[in-house]
Amino acid sequence: MGRVMECEPLYEWTGPKVEWPAHKNACTWNGELTEAQQKAADRITEAIFNKEKELLVWAVCGAGKTEMLFPGIAESLKRGKRICIATPRTDVVRELLPRLREAFSGIYIQGLYGGSRDMDGAAQFVIATTHQLLRFKNAFDVIIIDEIDAFPYHADKSLSYAANRSKREDSNTTIYLTATPRQKHQLQIARKKLQHIFVPSRFHGYPLPVPAFHMCNSLQKDMKSFQPPKSFLKWYTHRKTPEHQLLIFVPSIILAENLCKNLRQILQDDNVVAVHASDSNREEKIQQFRNKKIRVLVTTTILERGVTFPAVDVVVFDAGHSVFDEAALVQIAGRAGRSPKDPTGEVVFFHNGKTEAMVQAVRSIKTMNKRGGFR
To answer: Which positions carry the signal peptide feature in this UniProt record (predicted)?
Structure first.
């Protein structure tokens, strides 16, 4: 947002309503949706066509939520509507932008986030962090809010206020996307106060990986000295898929930085890198990991959702830490097995005592797999 002082004037548009052009064949994506994806895509399009106020799309990690949006976005552009996809994380905006520009190659799409090159937010199709919605009022016909359960959106009332204010008053639809709806939304669904569509399976037809628990009695001592647990080193030596890259989640920045240094020495591998929210080079590091130039990436929860890596194993150190709630652990587990060429991957929670969040996360994943037709 940049610096804003209370003595500075803020402006809003009071002129005539902007008429946006209609694009007949906006979608240039050549892929095919699965039966489950198509069902969800049809429901999203129906909600936009009928100007329904709200629709929640509850789809498991790796279901292909972005692709499900394409028909609805195409229908909106065909009708001359203005669209915004908002997400709580900057990294997700960076990942979605090239994918959507490729899928809608004839449409000018702007990406708005802290430090982005696009500044004016004047495009017909905008992808933005939820904080950027504070810049808009009565602006969008269709708003798609990705990962509504993610921090900070679910915890900051000003962001939901900004989302509501940015919608056009005369005609609007809000589509919510999530793999892990919070209790508030689950209650609204149960009471039939929130329309929803459920997608229980991944697009490649394989189940979600179920995390394994590894008990470490010396975990807290190891974490204080920034050392990996001995049980991790034993697991690492006997990995089922040693060719996979490794994504290690830790609860704090200081742990990420110092653990990374020690892992380089212990694994005798200089290809171990740390990344976190305060890292000025995080965009470059994430891209290098995606390009397989980094073998082991130690990260905080900034990469728990919204990013796709084709073939990774996932590890959580101190999985019982309060930072890792049920939703975070489900999302973290969902980073593994996302590629149809490599649909499996190990997920391991290293802990010194099970927490309710850990148990519920595994239960939730097993329930999703059962609903998706897997035993």
So the answer is: none
